Amino acid sequence: MSGGGVPIQGPDRTDQELADLDVPALLREGLAAGAAHSELFADGRVAAAIAADRLGVRPRSLTFLAEVVRRGGIGYAAQLPEPLPGAERTALARAWLAAAGSAAPSAGSAAGSAGTDADDQFARWLDAVAVILGVRQHAAPPPAR
Could you state, in order of their start, the residue ranges of all structural domains in the chain? Predict the structure, then answer.
């Protein structure tokens, strides 16, 4: 290594360990500025990307959902008949939306009430999950251990 760069450390958790995280619980506590806030915006994003990847979610679908949350709020997005295309993907999105909505019950409770801190944080979280998902879908699989 040239120059004095900092070595990159490997992952602390395996994909399976991350997939076992309770993402809705992290959303409930993390968006409410609880102790899980840091974990939600770190391992929670990766865990969500793994779950989405396993269901074949496309990153642009999450980006679109994030924009709906920004413009209409969590409550509005939760009322969509199909927040992500397909039954299994919709169930995943509904679990995340319900958890995010319960973290800030007044957040996005009606159309036009977007812009709360919880709406903004959740939209940013969805965007980050979309980026991680895109990287995972375009990267080579990790070497077997």
Answer: 15-138
